[in-house]
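Example 507, ligand adenosine monophosphate.
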Amino acid sequence: MHNHFFAAVEARATPAAPFLQAPQSSAAAAWTYADMLARSAQMANALVALGVAPGDRVAAQIEKSPEGLMLYLGAIRAGAVFLPLNTAYTTGELDYFLRDAEPTVFVCDPARHKAIAALAKDCGVAAAETLGPDGRGSLYDLAQTQPDTVAEVPRAPDDLAAILYTSGTTGRSKGAMLTHANLVSNAEALVEIWRFTAADRLLHALPVYHTHGLFVATNVVLFSGASMLFLPKFDAGEIISEMPGATTMMGVPTFYTRLLDRPDFTTETARTIRLFTSGSAPLLAETHRDWFARTGHAILERYGMTETNMSTSNPYKGDRRAGTVGFPLPGVALRVVDPETGVSVAAGAIGMLEVKGPNVFKGYWRNPEKTAAEFRPDGFFITGDLCQVDPDGYLHIVGRGKDLIITGGFNVYPKELELEIDAISGVLESAVIGLPHKDFGEGVAAVVVLQPGAGLDETAVQGALHGRLAKFKLPKRVFFLSELPRNAMGKVQKNALRDQYKATFAG
Ligand code: AMP
């Protein structure tokens, strides 16, 4: 038996070919695939020296760096389970993750080592090492002393490669267990449908503690022999200067809106690009249109989640439709069901999306109850996303099930109202939420961001919606903000909005 994931990576690696360029890090000015193999082997050996055994967790809360990426690959080569943590997590949250995951090694930023070493010890973590934004730290020092080849630890397709904690907007964050086969099958499917080759050069500006930057972007590069420009974070000015020469960029919707805000981002900037993809949060149809007008490129929107990797994509060749996430990936089965009964809904009706395939995770870490609750007996995973399939087979995500508003016994799908509000002249975007209401259970409210210079007020928005949708769907209140609260992946934080306006209909 071999190491299922890494054997696939190694089989595709041309040693002399370029792998990664990191303009801001002198250490990794330009790494070839041979460098990737050598440095990830050193990381694997360093982890083994720290006591990591097959199946152990290696947790990391570090800034993005090429060396940090080698930690991901090194952990897998050592047969361990890589566990990246969002850099925004506080020490209190870390306490939960370390106790829940029981990693053997925890890697943190050198600046936080003092504060965290004691916590790690308290949580029973054997080694607390450091890796900084510049790729330097105690783990780097140790890796430097290690041989640059390693006998990979054999891992079967069903063994764990990583645990990614979900964002946990409802209750405790859960660890999604991702297997070697999950990662391999998804990388292979994406390389095929997005036509990645060794000639590609990817602009990588996504965070690498999340499925999008860590798996979608990085694994597609590794599985096609492509190269990437590895940027520490998204910076519109830097993207504009680095885009010429790149062939593709994967982004969250905010990448696209921020670039469109820059008058110096032009058709010429995107001249060498063959593909722009977007995901992790819904891309506004308006952004899709504006991007096409500016660059001549139709952004390819795809859909996935931590638990399922990628499940659907708009076509590479063919109509990439704004506001849709396209068709199932090869080997992925989808169905749309009534959330209560689990019975398939009529064609075209809104329902809960369920997914089955080699992309779907193994379950929640040490949480068999939650795992059992979110899988159907026939193996379909209940995504929690409400959706609709249009007559041409394109999937539309209507929103999270938990964002569904039930007002006076009627269902209101926020997306339906958001689309109407966004179409009002002067509106940039909106978020529709349900707030506790003494008579109706929930009352519909809209939070609106206006285009610069627009002079709409609450009455104007309500007036524009009048007659467009059934009365129970219309917002009883409209609030205005200069921007919607979003997390790093561009997701609108509806919890924060519900919290901010929770007293609206009280009393
Ligand atoms: P995460 O686990 O952080 O990747 O979040 C997954 C969730 O993001 C999904 O369940 C969807 O609600 C949302 N999501 C991801 N991609 C899209 C998309 N293209 N359009 C709409 N929602 C999306």
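Summary: The radius of gyration is 23 Å.
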